[in-house]
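Anyone up for a design puzzle?
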C-alpha cells in the first residue's frame, strides 16, 4: 500500500501545508438533504402551509 504522503515526492509535509490555498472558498453550497413535512390538523390552514413553504420545507399532501 502506498504511503499517504508519497505524492509529495521530495517535499516535506510542512512545505506542502505551507503551499495550501488558505483563501479557498467553495463556489456555492448545495443543500443535499430536504426537510419533508405532512399536512395534518395543526397545519391545515393556508397560513400554516405558507409558513412551512417559506421555511424551506418540502410539503407532502
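Challenge accepted. My sequence:
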Amino acid at each position: 500500500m502506498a504511503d499517504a504522503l508519497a505524492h509529495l515526492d521530495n517535499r516535506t509535509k510542512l512545505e506542502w501545508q505551507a503551499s495550501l490555498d488558505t483563501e479557498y472558498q467553495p463556489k456555492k453550497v448545495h443543500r443535499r438533504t430536504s426537510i419533508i413535512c405532512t399536512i395534518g390538523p395543526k397545519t391545515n390552514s393556508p397560513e400554516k402551509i405558507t409558513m412551512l413553504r417559506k421555511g424551506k420545507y418540502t410539503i407532502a399532501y
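A detail worth pointing out: The chain has one domain: 6-59.
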